[in-house]
Amino acid sequence: MRRSLQPISSLLVLGLIASSPSSVSCAHPAPPNVPPLTTALVPPEGGAASSGAPSSGGGYAGHGSESVSPEILAKYAPTPLPPQVSRRIQSMLDVRAPMGTRLAPDGKTLYFGWTVTGTAQVWKADGPKHFPTQLTGGEDVTRMSGVTPDGKWLVISRDRKGEENPGLYLMPASGGPMREVQHTPKVQTQLAFVSDDGKWLYYRANDKKPDSYAIYRWEIASGKRETVFAEDGLWNVDDHRGDKLLLTKATGALTAEYWEWDEAAKKLTPLFGQGEKEEYNAMYAAGPGELLVQTPKFGDFRRLYRVKQAPLTGKPLEASQGTAITPDVRHDVSSFFIDRARTHVYYQLNDEGFTRAHVLDAKTYAETKLPSSAALADATHVTFGAPSWSGRWAILNVGSAKAPTASYVLDWQTNELTPWVSPSTPEVETSRFAVAKLEYYPARDGTRIPMFVRRPAACEKVDSGCPVVIQFHGGPEGQAIPGFNVYAQLFVDAGFVFVEPNVRGSDGYGKAWLHADDGPKRLSVITDIEDASKFVRTAWVKDGKAPKVGIIGGSYGGYSTLIGMTMFAGAYDAGVANVGMSNLLTFLLNTAPYRRTLRASEYGDPEKDREALMKLSPVTYIDRLSAPLLLLQGASDPRVPVGEAIQMHDALEKRGIDAKLVIFADEGHGTQKRENKVIEIGKTIDFLDKHLKPSANDNVKK
């Protein structure tokens, strides 16, 4: 479970990840024979949080497309946009950046993901600036997972309809038909690693139990599958050395235990994390008997430590057992890895939302400087792709505020940084894009809440009177980030001031900030959502008149939107909730089985914390809502079930409140297909344009 959580923005929900660091999360689909969603889950009359809670199973059951009837899908299917509206969004979506992910062992070919066809697929470039070749196709999201040491095979991951139950495939490196390793309905199959001899693919799958992962290996030559490890638990392989596998067992959204599995001896040895709830991420170091461990345990921010393995016995890790190898700064080490050759340690610092890249010598831990480059100097984010098998070449993905991400290849032997794949910006002048400025607003207890603000040229003054859209990020352990942002620019172009707060509970500001909203503690800081609007309405006034303020977000940001529109009714003039939870209790009971434990560590236990969960649920305050609301949802969503949107909509309808609902039958947790992205963005902007600018024309057919 080496840390891969990057700053999260709405781009992830919308699938627009070309120019921002990415994060991938998967889940299990709905159980069979789930009744159609026909009954709304309605709180007691009056909506008071203390007056009781709805039945935990009265509204809907399960998740995924099986949990909703064809009649409901037809009723709430998206309607098309007028051509002129669609065309405007389409042109912006043509601004795409291919992100370098893997290098061929000889360093001569770069494999990368690109959405130029409308859906993420795998491409390659056989040299710097060479014309790219498409390797995979179709309508399903397909990504590169690995390459074999001999360079003959690519390991490919493919999902279907946003179900987040990907399968694994092999493809010849030159392209051609794919060979299935495993793609089983309702099962996640995820690559762990390719063995150093290129003989075996190791992967994990929840095919034995939906809430546990077993570890398998699959022989490339014969297709033979063997079970490596199958104890119950949310297991993953973080690293390997010889016959030893470094296993992690997730115990919460971020917390984990570490174990070592000896394949030859069939012996499982506890290392650290047992008996505690702490965030750890680890890999084998270059030196024998030593681990690299990333943790915030010994301070407020994550640092990287070298730890001798010999004394580890499963007891909590002590500060005296580790030596820090990254500086003591008020920035998180957001991710790290060591290359397979054990020559370099790569890590990234989260500097208040900006991503700074660093490299250490794997044996001495001395800082290794990256080559001087104007691109690196001007970058908002510099992230690493996987190095080559030999460790000689590494990938750097570089993005700035006014340009999409470009991929470079670093040759450690020559110390040269070569631009390899450039982004596409057809018919769009990116130099005009608004730059996100770091500002702050005060919470009611005096805490300064950071926020990134993008303003249209006509709205540079805070007293411009321009309408404001406040977007809350997903997670909740996510983070709004600066940098090139096509989605934000569409709102800026539409005349909105675009604001992205990092409320308490966000990542990147230390563990005290990150865990400020865990479980029932969320009750104390949920007011950060209302305080954002209060600040805008009082500080950005023109001629004594407050600007109109809208609220949007996806996933946890969708939940934040629903909270802003219900618990804090009146704070916002309109809202658009994308795949948001309307009831934290039913959400926890119906989300994918493996996610339940992880999400309960963040939101609270459905039994022990039931009262707090209902106090924090938008449905509890549904009778307060009076402003316009649009709900967007994917039917196949395994994380936030489609029932969350339907029960919210039905409850509003019963109260005579006009709320719009759009369900994408062929999508999951956010849209992936280009045509659906266009509709989703178009509906959102038009809805806010209509309700935050009363004089605007209604351009979109409802």
From TrEMBL:
Keywords: Hydrolase, Protease, Serine protease, Signal. It comes from Labilithrix luteola. It holds the Pfam family PD40. The keyword Nuclease does not apply. This is Acylamino-acid-releasing enzyme. Residues 25-66 are annotated as: Disordered. PANTHER family: DIPEPTIDYL PEPTIDASE FAMILY MEMBER 6, SERINE PEPTIDASE S9 FAMILY MEMBER. InterPro entries: 6-blade_b-propeller_TolB-like (IPR011042), AB_hydrolase_fold (IPR029058), Peptidase_S9_cat (IPR001375), Peptidase_S9A (IPR002470), WD40 (IPR011659). Residues 1-26 form the signal peptide. The keyword Hydrolase applies. GO terms for biological process: proteolysis. GO terms for molecular function: serine-type endopeptidase activity. Residues 484-693 form the Peptidase S9 prolyl oligopeptidase catalytic domain.
